[in-house]
Design brief:
The protein has 44 residues and is an all-alpha fold. The protein has one helix at residues 22-32. The termini are far apart.
Length: 44
Amino acid sequence: MSTPRPHPHFNDKGTLDWHTRWQDALATAKASGKHVFIEFGREA
């Protein structure tokens, strides 16, 4: 198993494997039979 990609804005201590591009996230989810979690917000 590879090392999870970090959260792009804070240290989540490796909780999830984060993607910043939809196509990458969808391809990874499909390949592993998992769902996609979408975090949406705005930066201050």
